[in-house]
Amino acid sequence: MKIITYGDSIFHGDGVDQRDNIPSQIGAILGADVKNAAISGAGWSVAGGTDSLAQVDNNPNTGYDLAILEFGVNNYGWPAELDDIRYAASQTIRAIQLFDFNTDILLVLPGPDFRWRNGGNVPSLDDKNSKGWSQNDLINMLIEVANQWNASYWDWRTSPVITYDNAVDMLQEGQKGVHPTVKGATAEAQAIAKFVKDKKLGQHSVQPFVTQTSPQGVTQVVANPDYVVQQSQPVEQPKVQIKLTSINSSSELIGVFNSNMTLIYKALEFNFIPQTFVDLNRGSRNYIIESVNELKTLLGIKFGGISFMDNDGMEVTTDGLITPSSLEVNQVISDLNTDWTILERFINVANSI
């Protein structure tokens, strides 16, 4: 198995020999070849430098069986808005999938950070930071993102490895820190490796996806038929039928967009996480463009570019989907209404088979 890891100082192994950091010990336990791309001080961010998206861009996961991401403790202590971190996590996971759809993804959710004490009180996962959100809020949001992108996540809270009570032995700074000792790194590595083995992550004898080029020269990633056949209990396609609403004015653009996208994602067995905007601006435009592009990616993953026949013998595809990039609001509304018609028809036919 080949594993690539991304993260901050916890995975980088600050304060311990590199042979004793968590990724190295995971590799030793699993007998895996591990490349550790973690950098001290990193966090969930789409900015350049050392953060999550830059780590993936600079160290692509192409050819790796499993990517493990460990970010978040620095986001809590030096916080941005939670929605900005959600966006960064989504973009980072999406980048991994685009580099290689066959790489399994595991989020190691951020562990307890005892560096930020609330007065003289024992630090709690519910303590709010300067942006008004807690470590629990961050962890729960990252679980939503993982579910949205069909990534796995290790939620250590169900069986904590490092606690305030054992921090003296498990953390280099004791009850005022976050960086594992060799003992703490070993315990973390053992728990993560067990999760990987139990979930059989990165252990595909047949790759789930393959690259296919059409007669017209269009190359796309599609589901591998051999992998589908290999599954002893294939997941039954949902039978959800959807009715999408047309957008009639700019005032209802975001509201109807979020409602329709939520219905579409539910029918595809994904979770859509909507954003809200007070005004239509560059942020809302980028949100719509990125959401439609991500939906196209998910449709490719789930259906592999195949078409269906409706009851009248007419071919149904998603070929006509438009990414609404116009600067004119009325054109955006028109393009989206075209997309709703295509998507409603395609999903309802696909889910009726």
Structure commentary:
This protein has 353 residues and is α/β, with parallel strands linked by helices. The protein has 2 domains: 2-199, Rossmann fold (3-Layer(aba) Sandwich), CATH 3.40.50; 235-350. Helices cover 41% and strands 10% of the residues. The protein contains 12 helices and 9 strands. The protein has a 5-stranded parallel beta sheet, with helices on both faces. A two-stranded antiparallel sheet has the order 6-7. A hairpin with a 5-residue loop joins β6 and β7 (219-223). The protein is globular. The two termini are 37 Å apart.
Could you say which overall geometry the principal axes of the C-alpha atoms support? globular
Radius of gyration: 22 Å
Distance between the termini: 37 Å
Tally of individual domains: 2
Report the total helices.
12
Mean pLDDT: 88
Q: What is the CATH C-level name of the largest domain?
A: Alpha Beta
Q: Secondary-structure element order, as H and E? A: EHHEHEHHEHEHHEEHHHEEH
CATH architecture of the largest domain: 3-Layer(aba) Sandwich
Strand order across the largest sheet: 2-1-3-4-5
Q: What fraction of residues sit in β-strands?
A: 5-15%
- CATH topology title of the largest domain: Rossmann fold
**Could you list the spans in which at least 5 consecutive residues all have pLDDT below 50?**
229-235
Q: Helical proportion?
A: 40-55%
Main β sheet profile: 5 strands, parallel
Domain SGNH hydrolase-type esterase: 6-185
Protein name: SGNH hydrolase-type esterase domain-containing protein
Pfam family, one: Lipase_GDSL_2
